[in-house]
Design a protein that fits this description.
Number of helices: 4
Low-confidence stretches: 1-25
Structural class: alpha+beta
Oligomer: single chain
Radius of gyration: 19 Å
Length: 218
């Protein structure tokens, strides 16, 4: 009986650790994001939201994790989203170069890889130091399946901490477009959260994610 109880505890802890490492869930974080315009929260409809052609904000109300957003004009992101699966990993230093009030929107699709593959090594291996490689292996070994690696630049330094614990990203410019954002109609988003706020020295980390579509009124 004692041996059986010990085995049960060991197995329970093992699967608990895997479940914790695989905590990412598409759509699970949607509830923690709000789109605000003219002082009111704009409610989404089936994963999409329509805004007026003026300044707006993205507020993240979750606790203990850091928000970020990847944005693209390219509709092929809709197809790529169907290829995403948990767990997803990214590396430090993958932020987009944008001013605090600018939403950088990519014209390409998402840059992602099925684990540390030959394609990833060719594209990004030369910029990964030994510490980054070792941390990736240690993190991967905690997971039940090989992770996807996302390397596209995300807007995350734009989210500013607020006194109430939330994070706010006020968008006054989309790339080189200022209101009324002429030429911008649809932006495909992936909202992310991660634990870099709790682990600022981490070289690699898990991402929680949720797809979203942003449209502007004509």
């Amino acid at each position: 009986m004692r041996l059986g109880a010990i085995l049960f505890i060991v197995i329970s802890v093992f699967f608990s650790n895997i479940q914790s490492a695989n905590a990412a869930a598409p759509s699970g974080i949607i509830k923690d994001f709000q789109f605000i315009q003219n002082g009111r929260v704009i409610q989404p409809n089936s994963g999409a939201i329509t805004l007026s052609r003026t300044t707006f904000s993205i507020r993240y109300t979750g606790k203990g994790s850091a928000p970020s957003v990847y944005a693209s004009f390219n509709p092929k992101l809709k197809k790529q989203i169907k290829e995403l699966h948990d767990p997803i990993i990214s590396f430090a230093g993958t932020g987009s170069a944008a001013s605090p009030s600018q939403l950088y929107v990519d014209n390409e699709g998402l840059d992602f890889y099925q684990g540390w593959s030959a394609a990833f090594e060719t594209a990004w291996g030369s910029v990964q130091d030994p510490k980054g490689r070792d941390e990736y292996v240690a993190l991967k070994n905690r997971l039940a399946t090989d992770p996807l690696i996302i390397m596209s630049g995300r807007n995350y330094t734009n989210f500013e901490p607020q006194q109430d614990g939330s994070h706010l990203f006020t968008v006054r410019q989309i790339n080189d477009f200022s209101p009324p954002f002429s030429g911008v109609t649809t932006i495909y988003l992936i909202l992310f959260t991660d634990e870099t706020s709790a682990r600022p020295d981490a070289s690699s980390y898990l991402l929680n994610w949720a797809p979203f579509v942003l449209e502007f009124k004509n």
